[in-house]
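# step 3/5: fold
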Amino acid sequence: MIRKIKTTIALLLSVFLFAGCGSNKYKIPELKEPVVTNETYQCAVRGNVGKVVYKQGTIEPVKHAQFWKTSVAIKEVKVRVGDKVKKGDVLAVADVEYVTEKIAAINREIAYLNEQKAVEDEKYEMQMAEYQYRLDGANEIGNTSVAKQTEDAMKVAEENKFYSDLLYNHRIKYKNDELSDLAEVVENENLLATYDGVVTYSLDLTKANIVNKECNVAVITDYNETFLSVPYDVNANESNYSDVYAIVGGKRCEIKEIEYSANEKAVLKSKSVNMPNRYEFVDKQIKPELGTTIYIACRKEYVDDTIIVNNESVYSDDKGDFVYIINGDKNEKRYIETGMHDAHNTEVKSGIEEGEKVFLKNNTTLPEEYTELLIERKDFEFVKESGGIIINKYNCVIRSSDVAGIVKSGEADGYKCEAGDTLCKIETSEGAASLLQQRVQMQEAEQDHQAYVDTLNEQMEALQLKINEETFRREHPAVYFEDDMNKATRSDAFDDFEKRYSFDIPEEDKGEFPIEEFNGLYYLEELNCQMEQLKLELELSNVNFEYQLGEMRYNYEKQCENNDGSGMVEVKAKANGILKKRYVSDGDEVQNGTKLFAFGYEVKPLIEFTRTGVLHSEVNFYMANDLKYSGTVIAYNAQDENYLTTIDGVVYVTSGAYKDGYISVDCDEQIAEDPSVGKLKCKVCVNSIKDALVVPTRAIQSEVNTLGDEYKYVWVSKDGAISKRYVEAQDFEGNSVIIDGLEDGETIMYEG
């Protein structure tokens, strides 16, 4: 109802706990009766004071991600969104042929890595032997500079070897683990459900039939097992507060955090992933409905059940804190002992009794016309409109084109095929061009390898000359160190060198050839080690080349299976099945990835919508023909949602199961056959709050303190007096839900 009041009315202010900063205390002249424009009083009451942060949580079901531990190709996904499954049910079937080929490829790679490692180890030993000869020679003649350089080089080589071994061991372990996981797939090609529940996500094979390691194939949701989920906030984590409780129906409900295990925390930290905080109600009888919004209060530095007054009522002078108490028709100054304070209220430890009226400076003016509203609890749903489309008429395997070209022939809908049958042919120049390109790549690889081999052979020839020279020097030391050596003897030595190594020395060089400088006591041994390293480098090059060329040949031969080189590519069935739908006709131009055929069986349609919806909430939607249908939300868009799964003690983190929301349709199959169906208009509940106090948003006022913090309040009418009450509220486009600060049965006033 609408009433008029005078703005000079005395306000009896009730109190409410609210989060914020400390109180402001003002020094004023010592007055027995303060004079203000708007005299306001509050009763000293018992209440709570301290720091509180409110958060919004949701009652969510437990979800179980279902995936293979290795990358596989999938022949068929057996379930779809909305299906009820039992533990052990088949969710998807792997393509064993693909897995077998992958195992063979990994075995080839392991053999290559082992062969590569063996040669690299030999090469390292030769390098260290070379360094050791150099070090020994330097130490014997006292060359500390060369000795130090050599020792440093040895340490670098040892460190490189250490990290090289680590990498090798890691790669081999990874490959062996992958082989073990693939062997499990070969032994049992089916992905089985690990829990009972409802499928709220299943992989769409129309987009891809190959999944990477730990990619979600399905998500099973257990609607009977729920928890309170609160988004993780790194800046205000609940663990930073000493008291956390839920507010259900306006009442405090104790909750207990469901801790993540030490292994889970370690994996989440390593992947920089933050999961929501999870809670359960201490009282097992409290079971809020699935999808319900629940608010939680996080308190820190607080006092319960104490005498509190408004901060603006507290003044200060040299003697301490004081307030003005109304005593009959006079105001009495009274000193008090204060304690904890928050954004609005101050604890009074002594000096005031409960119920005494305390002066409050107030500059807020009530409107002359206002409406009274009785606050009552009711269920509140915030509904938004969302676009939607009908999807997944078939739960099936999709065969897409691997090449671009023109469809020349193909089987019709209803064709029963067996694995290996030709479904259609695609004429494409890219088929022949691709084979030609691969042949060119193999030829280029051979040329590059031969060029590197030639370079190594040249290096070995040059090094062999040095070895020959050093061998000659050792056998004829006098040629180098005896200045008075008989020239005939020196000439005979050079002749011997020419004869032994088939090397012609010009006459003008025989006075100085081969060398006259000293290269170390064990220079010949060092050169021999270098030669062995070059030979091992040549062997390593051959190992690398043979593996790479082998893989190129393997891929070339695989592509040749359905390509005769003319560019006519045959598309073959990978498994037995019924061709449910052909997406292309003869003469159609297709690209790589174009859908060609669908195999499988018809299923009940789903509605896909683009706005988050409350699980299990009812949805109304309208089709192009204005017919109204209803459905139930069974999944919602949570594209970045993370899932924790522990298998055999190993923690896996998977993510991104959902793209949009899904509605299970409560109507018959005709909806899928209606030719007028296009985009749908869905009314989707995005927030569901039970036993909520809902008021018009215009009934809530706001004020800003000196620090710029904004606070909300309402005017409460009780026993002919009007109170200013601070509240915590969330706005929903015209309506506001009171999180805390009001009780049902109270009356508020607002302008209008």
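# step 4/5: annotate
The longest helix spans residues 429-475.
# step 5/5: archive (pending)
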